[in-house]
Amino acid sequence: xxxxxxxxxxxxxxxxxxxxxxxxxxxxxxxxxxxxxxxxxxxxxxxxxxxxxxxxxxxxxxxxxxxxxxxxxxxxxxxxxxxxxxxxxxxxxxxxxxxxxxxxxxxxxxxxxxxxxxxxxxxxxxxxxxxxxxxxxxxxxxxxxxxxxxxxxxxxxxxxxxxxxxxxxxxxxxxxxxxxxxxxxxxxxxxxxxxxxxxxxxxxxxxxxxxxxxxxxxxxxxxxxxxxxxxxxxxxxxxxxxxxxxxxxxxxxxxxxxxxxxxxxxxxxxxxxxxxxxxxxxxxxxxxxxxxxxxxxxxxxxxxxxxxxxxxxxxxxxxxxxxxxxxxxxxxxxxxxxxxxxxxxxxxxxxxxxxxxxxxxxxxxxxxxxxxxxxxxxxxxxxxxxxxxxxxxxxxxxxxxxxxxxxxxxxxxxxxxxxxxxx
Length: 423
Prior knowledge:
423 residues; CATH 2.40.50.140; alpha/beta; elongated; 2-enoyl-CoA Hydratase, Chain A, domain 1
């Protein structure tokens, strides 16, 4: 999940007449949300007349389409873009390598690494031909980016074809990046006076003493980024199923249906940014159906076992990718499957028990009640005392006054009775 953090730095003394530097932090997956955030930041930096836009990057990679949108935005930017792999412990892997290579200036802080850009299928697997095509395309793309920025094109291609990765010091030696800096202040001092070529032409950077402004991500992007996490999308999908189930079994409840519908819509939005295998979604639905059937069919627990297996397998298949950050975690799947199983088994057992219970109100509630004959009773009629009430009664056999009776059925305002077996 991409996480964006921000704050505003105080302007250094004497910076009133200096330019401004826009800084954003991208920490997580390269996805449509991060692509939109970077794209809007590039546009904003141009509108505010910023000296440079600094992207502090820490990413394990992400989606090819989102990465290409980011690269296009950087190349078309009239404001120089610096990609700074930071802080210590960060990385620019997979799609992050392309973004770093596209930057006008590429920098890394100590204790970081870059590389391993071989393309992988985010949904399912690719055959040998498709894999080779994807690798060739990615290799040509990153080589062109490296050559355009005057960096090590051979290493860039090897990061795609051989998944090579290097530390910040090796990256500097191999001319994969332009410089190392321990923090943002050192970075801005190091690039001051450098000349870069942007879409608007040649520009000399004036970053010394410039006002640093960090852009805060909007609430909308925070929400969209959160629900783009596979674990969150999976939970939203289950909550959606629960909500609709409650609404269908309790028409008019309203709240479960509304909440369930919202959760499903948000889950489907997430599915657009994730490698969804709809066979997995169908398996989850089948698992829920099996839990329902367990209440109606005597299977000695086999249907419940099948339901649990179906939900677990479906959950693991729903987001099918070799990349761990695009899959649902087992620590989420197993508890969710267990809770779902317990929920449906408990709920439907209560419902079925209530269905099987004898009615206690209305005419059906009279059947089986015991009473006594208030008068002689035969097929022509009579009177009985049942449940503290006098009822007109008839019987196929003669019943004497005071004898115990049991109600067999109710017909209009009369009851059909028979002698109590113990009478």
